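#structure-requests
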Amino acid sequence: MRAWSVAIQLVTARAFQTTTAFRPRALTPALTTALSVSTTAAADNMCKNTAVSNPLLESWAAQPFHLPPFEDIDPSHFRPALETAMEAHIADLEAIASSTETDFDSILGAYDRAGSLYSKVGGVYGNYISSLNTPDMQEVQSAMAPILSRHRTKCYNIPGLFEKVTSMYDVREEMAKKGEWTDEQVRLAERVYTAFVRMGVKLNEEEKKEYGDIQVELATLQTKFMQNILKDEETWEMVITAEDMAGCPEDLVAAARQAAIDRGHEGEDEYVITLGRSLVEPFLTYSTRRDLRKKAFEAWTSRGELSEERDNLSIATKILRLRKRQANLMGHTTFSNFQTEDTMAQTPENVMNLCMDVWERAKEAANKEREMMESFLSEKGDDLEGGIQPWDWRFYAEQVRQANFNFDESELKPYLSLDAVTNAVFDVSNKLYGLKYVKRDDIKAYHKDVNVYEVRRAKKDSPEEDELVAIFLHDNFSRAHKSSGAWMSEYRTQTKNLIAGSDPIEGIPIVSNNNNFAKGSGATLLSFDDGTTLFHEMGHGHHGMLSDATYEYLASTSVLKDFVELPSQLMEHWLEEPVVLKEHAKHYKTGETVPDDLLARLKAASLFNEGFATVEYTACALLDMAVHSLSEYDDNFDLSEFEKKYLAEIGMPQGIVMRHRPAHFAHLFASSSYASGYYVYQWAQVLDNDVFAAFQETGDVFDAETAERCRKFIYSAGNTVAPQNLFKAFRGREPDTSFFLKNKGMA
C-alpha cells in the first residue's frame, strides 16, 4: 500500500474479511464423527437446497485450480449464497462450542477451519465490491453490510465458544514448555483470544448489544461513504478539446481521448479528464491551462462532497461519534487509544513522536521547494496571481525539475510501458524468490482486462521439477465501477490446515493485484511513480504468495497493521536499481535500452519534491491520529473546520493540501482498518529502508542468502511470530531510522 502516489485501498478490497480478525474455514471432522456429520452434512444439504443456478454454492472442482466460475457469477447470486454460508458458519462454530473435546485441534484447529463456504463466497464478494462494483452489486453491498456485521458479532458471541478459546489461551505457556505446542500454536491462541476480547465478549449483555449495534451502523455508513466516492468518480468529468490539452505529453492526450470514447463522447475533438489519479495527476503536472488545472484539482480534492446527495462529511462525523462510543465501551477514552493498543506502535504518543519528527523535516524541505519554484517564476518574469496554489504545485515542480535537473518525466515514460514494468517485476520476483509466472490466456477472469498467471518455483528436494505456489490475477486498468487506488486482495488464502480429504489445491493462495492505470489506445505508458506502485502491490502479492503458515488465521497479510506495509514498500526499492532498469526499461517502439544519461538525471532529480510528497502524506497521518484522539464530538463539531484549524496549527505549508481530504479519505472512513492507522506507511518506511540496506551492504541487491532470510522472516511468516521479533530475526537488532531519513533526503 503506497502512502502517496496511488494509495492502496486494501481496506476496501478486504472489507468483507473485517481486518483479518475473522478468517473462517470449515469445521474439522476431528471433533468427532457425530459432529462432523451434523455440521458438514448440514452445510452440504443447505448447498443442495440453495445451489440451484447459483454457481457460488456449487463445487468449483471443475474450474482450473478451483478458481471461482467468474463467467457464471451474477450479483443476484451473492445474497442467497452469503446467507447459506453464514448459516453453515454458525453451525461450525456452535459445534466447537458444544464439543466435549479439549485438545488444540478440536478447538483452535477447528476454529481456523470453520466456515469454508463463508470464506469461499466471501472471497469473491469482497473482491467484486472493489473491482466490479456495478450498480446492481452496490445494491447487494448496501443490503448485506448490516447483515454481515450482525453475523460477525454473532460469531464472537456464540455461548461457550469464548470459554473454549480462553481454555486454550490459559494453557498456552504450559503447553509450550512441555513441548506439546509449537510456537505457531501459541501465537494462534494469543491472536484469537485477543480478537475475541477486542470484539467485546467481556462486556455485559446490554453493552454487547450496544457494541453490536454500533458495528452494524458503522458497516452501513462505511459502505455508503465508499459508494459516494465511487459515484463522484464515475460521474464527474471535464470534457475539453485538443487545444485545451496544451503542454500535455502524447500518452496523456491519448489516454484522455480513450477516456472520452469510453464515456460515450464520440466527437473527434473531445477529450476527457476524469477523477482517476492516473489521469488527473498528469494533467495537473503538464497542462499549461491554469484555469483547467484549478477546475480539475478542486473537483479531485472535493470527492465525497460534490453533491448534496452524497455528503460524506456528515457520514464521517457520525462514524467518529460511533467509534468514540465503541472505544468507551472497551475502556478507552479515545478511539486512537483503542486502535493502537494492538499495534507495534502501541500508543498514539509513539505514533505522533515519529510523525512529528518527520513533519518538521518535511515542512522545511517543502518550503525550500516552493522557494525554488518562486525563484524560477521570478527569473522568467512571471507574476502568478495569488502565488503558487495547490493546482500549480505539480506543474511548476515539473518545470523546475526540467530546468534544474534536465529531467522530464515524459522522456522516461516510453521506456516504462506496462509490459516492460510487469516483466521487470516478474524478473525481480524470480531472482529474489525463484518465482516463475506462466500466463494462462485460456482462463477467463471477471473482466477481459484481467490477466491470470500460474506462479511456480523449483521444488526444494527436486530442483529440476517445479511446483505450483499460487494463482495470480493482475487487474491493471482504471474503469467504471472499480474503486480508485491500488490494492492487493485474495480469493483464497494459503493454509496447511485443511479439512481431511480436501484437495491440496485448496491450500494454494489465489492472489489479486489491482491498479488503476489509464489505458491508452496503444501501449500503456507508466510514470516512474506508476511503476513504483506496480512494484509496491507485487510486494503485497509476495506476502500472500510466499506465505508458509500452518493456520490460515495467521497466514499472508494477517499481520499487525504497522507491519503490513513493510513487504510492499520493500519491493519498491528494486525499481530504482540501475541493474533492473537497464535490463527491462526498453523503448516501447524501438526496443532501445534506457540511456545511462537519462537514468543519471532520474537519480539526480529523485529527491526533488520529496518534501511536498512527504507533507501531503504526513498531514493525513497526523490529522487521522488527531481527529481520532478527541474525547468528544459535540453537536457543533465540524470536520471541515477541524481540518482547517488543525492544519494551520501544525503549520501546513502554503500551496499544499492533504493527499486525502476527509470527505474521500477511504482509509479512514470506508473501513475501520486504517482508522488511527494511516501512519503505518511511515512506520513501515523505517523498516523497509533498513531491510533494503541489508541487501545493499552485501554489494548485491539480489544476494541469495539475504533474499532467503527476507523470504523467511518478512514474506513467509505472516503473523506466526510477533512482527518486532521477525524484524530482529532478519536484521539482528532493533530498527534504525537513519536509513529512512537518508533516503528521504532529510537526514
